[in-house]
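Async update (no meeting this week)

Hi team, since we skipped the sync, here's where things stand on the single-chain job. The sequence we agreed to prioritize is pasted below, unchanged from the tracker. I ran it this morning and attached the output directly underneath so nobody has to dig for it. Comments welcome in thread, and please keep replies under the output.
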Amino acid sequence: MSSARVPRPEPRRRASNVATEKWEYGWQWRAACRGRDESLFFPPSRFERAEEKRSREKTAKDICASCPVQVECLEYALRIREPYGVWGGLNEMERRRLLREMDAELLSAE
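Output:
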């Protein structure tokens, strides 16, 4: 996992409309990953050794760490429950864990 701190969306904050409804003017155009090799952000269709996965994800997360729209990207991935790849600096398992934590926070606040 990258040593850079990933900004965490507020539990009750909803992703902006731009992230899901206005692709042509949205955050995606400003993303640091735009035009990069997508194989850095998504697992291959073949078996991937743990060392290869760590290396691939570290490279992707390093790109995310300098991205001006990292928070918007992560919010989008959480909102649509994106099941694959590195989004907003988190991989699939990290996003699932964050969603569980956010759900628990919401339930405890009720």
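Quick observations from my side:
Residues 17-109 form one domain.
The radius of gyration is 14 Å.
Reply here if anything looks off.
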